[in-house]
Write a structure and sequence with these properties.
282 residues; alpha/beta; TIM Barrel; 2 domains; eight-stranded parallel β-barrel; two-stranded antiparallel sheet; globular
Length: 282
């Protein structure tokens, strides 16, 4: 089993050449180079050129390079995608996707590049199944939650525990898993609040998120640690794998390990844990 970690996914303003240079040395699993929210309308064209030069120079190593374009209903969206295709990123992230038709429209412009989509509108939450189902034809790989936009559009209260958002978070994870997609949690806005950020990372792990989008490099270390399996989890996973590998257990669906009942589904979970642990350790 191979696994590409997406624990820490850092937004980088595409117009900021200094930030793009700094990103080459950061420990984030993925970088989202943003042409949308962080770039003023009058700076869009310059941001494309700055980002193109930075990606052409390389130096980002194993970090997954994702370009977030402007929405397809804006004056810049389609031209952003055309420009981004020439930059040869690992994926293109399209915001404000609300229907399966939006997915198809975006995919038709990507020329075969992997597609990530923002889940950030009330209509997207209502259409999650159809949006995820479009993945097989659209090269869709990942959902990215835009929790700030969801809060704005629904008029929810942004409490510390995100109680109002939890149904939407859970529904997004379920749709992603049903169709084999990754799911990345939304940002935590107060990057100086280390305790609150760690608590929200743990919540994301509990809800089954693959990782979290970040707004500041200071959040990377905590995010990587909390979205990685712990030492005890890895040790248990290895025990489960070793037990099922014994000849006497080859045909069994259920066995006992350290006094606990373990099924084949636990073997699959254990294999994922060890694959992720091996990947992030290398």
């Amino acid at each position: 089993m191979t696994y590409r970690p997406r624990r820490s996914v850092l937004y980088m303003p595409a117009a900021n050449a200094r930030a793009l240079e700094k990103a080459r040395g950061l420990a984030a699993d993925a970088l989202i180079f943003d042409l949308e929210d962080s770039v003023a309308p009058e700076a869009k064209l310059e941001a494309r050129a700055t980002l193109a030069a930075s990606l052409a120079a390389g130096g980002y190593g194993r970090r997954e390079r994702v370009v977030r374009v402007n929405g397809l209903d804006t004056p810049w969206g389609e031209e952003d995608i055309t420009a981004a295709r020439g930059m040869a990123p690992d994926a293109i992230l399209v915001p404000k996707v609300s229907t399966a038709e939006d997915v198809s429209r975006a995919a038709a412009l990507l020329g075969g590049l992997p597609l990530w989509v923002m889940i950030e509108t009330p209509l997207a939450i209502l259409n999650l199944r159809d949006i995820a189902a479009a993945s097989s034809k659209a090269g869709l790989a990942c959902f990215v939650l835009g929790t700030n936009d969801l809060i704005k559009d629904t008029r929810m209260q942004a409490s510390r525990a995100r109680a109002a958002l939890l149904p939407a978070l859970s529904a997004t994870v379920l749709a992603a898993r049903a169709f084999g997609l990754d799911c990345i949690d939304g940002v935590y806005n107060d990057f100086r609040d280390e305790e609150g950020f760690a608590a929200e990372c743990r919540q994301g792990v509990e809800y089954g998120m693959d990782g979290k989008t970040l707004i500041h490099p200071s959040q990377i270390e905590t995010c990587n640690r909390l979205f990685s399996p712990s030492e005890s989890e890895v040790n248990w996973a290895r025990q489960v794998i070793a037990a099922f590998a014994l000849p006497e257990n080859a045909s069994k669906g259920v066995i006992t390990v350290e006094g606990r009942m373990v099924e084949r589904l636990h073997l699959a979970m254990a294999e994922r844990v060890t694959a992720l642990a091996a990947t992030v350790a290398s």
